[in-house]
Amino acid sequence: MLIKIHRYCRRLHRxxxxxxxxxxxxxxxxxxxxxxxxxxxxxxxSRSEDVGPNIFEPIGISSNGYxxxxxxxxxxxxxxxxxxxxxxxxxxxxxxxxSILVNCWANDTKLTTYxxxxxxxxxxxxxxxxxxxxxxxxxxxxxxxxxxxxxIFIVGLHPNAWISRLQNLLALDSSNKAPLLWExxxxxxxxxEDKLYTDPRLHQARQEITAMYxxxxxxxxxxxSAASLPGQCFHIFKRSxxxxxxxxxxxxxxxxxxxxxxxxxxxxxxxxxxYRRQLQIxxxxxxxxxxxxxxxxxxxxxxxDSLLEVFPNARVITIHQNPVELLAxxxxxxxxxxxxxxxRKDIDKKCLGLRVTxxxxxxxxxxxxxxxxxxxxxxxxxDISCQDLAKCPVTxxxxxxxxxxxxxxxxxxxxxxTYLSDNPISQNGNQGSVSEWGLDQxxxxxxxxxxxxxxKVKV
Length: 459
What we know:
Layout: H1 2-26, H2 36-41, H3 69-79, H4 95-106, H5 113-139, E1 152-155, H6 161-171, E2 176-177, H7 181-185, H8 200-215, H9 217-222, H10 234-237, H11 246-249, H12 254-261, H13 265-283, E3 292-296, H14 304-310, E4 315-320, H15 323-338, H16 349-374, E5 381-385, H17 386-391, H18 393-404, H19 410-422, H20 441-447, H21 449-454
């Protein structure tokens, strides 16, 4: 009963906030205006702390029209506090994507008042996270010496239940480390292995996820997110303002979409170095580098060349699925996520379908292009179909361990059998037809012909 009351109160609060925003707009007032000055000022980071263009060492601030004088002055002042920290590594210039993202959302006239407040809170949280990470690395510089040895990346054209299931299975091995969702959301101070399920941040993450599901119950039916289960690298990338979701969900994201598409190998190498620092923080009290990281996110597909430059000994497992099925699922999920930011009447399903298709086709194109250039390299790349993973997950796991040179323990075998028994395969219901999103199956097969042919994906 209490849970239902909380859910009702959250929905009522959102309704009243949007209603108030509507009446304010009639008076020419936009509540919760999204701009860099507001984000920096209200992120609760003082001028003596760093919100500058790096976590690790001072670099130049990009001079572009997006950064206001006030915010730019704060950022320039902050960089002075990193003198002497060059040993911590080189960071990406995140001010450019930050500025573009902020302005794309700020100029989106269809956003609800609730969405604008939510976005402001999210941007502020990212700045605070960056500062917390910087302080952790300054206090404990030895963290950068922790090795990240032969991590395993599980990727696909779209995050789906099969990728999550494989990550969960590999996480059962005590010699592996799959970061839990709460760790990815709140990585500092470094989590301790003996307190993974008692840390107060676990409860905090559960509350955050519950609040989202209370407002958007359709997301809970499509996702199996839980604070105590492994999560996606999306939460690491967002601290460098690399965001694969916004270009699909947002209705005014063309500038950011083109920026993200145009990132060079060198640009993303800097991002992956920041990414590695965050993994090292997570490993600080959890094996100190001897465990194998098990990581998953669709973002990696776009930047495999940069990933392998920073992690040359990484193994990449790609889960393949019929692109028609993937597009139907991706469109359905994007539609649900869009309702966080827009009223349902303002979401054009056909436009959404085109954005999803463009995003997924870019991933397929880059994946095929990169793999053709790399050759087979069985020690680095492993391809698994979702049908094989569904039919015989134990065989698929054995193939992965053999290919990656890992040792299967008796304890691991027992845990896998228990997991498969307790977690039967769920089909997540009917994802619907792609025609609902203005797409045609024949066109989809043509768009993804190179991908399905190269990887022998059944369509």
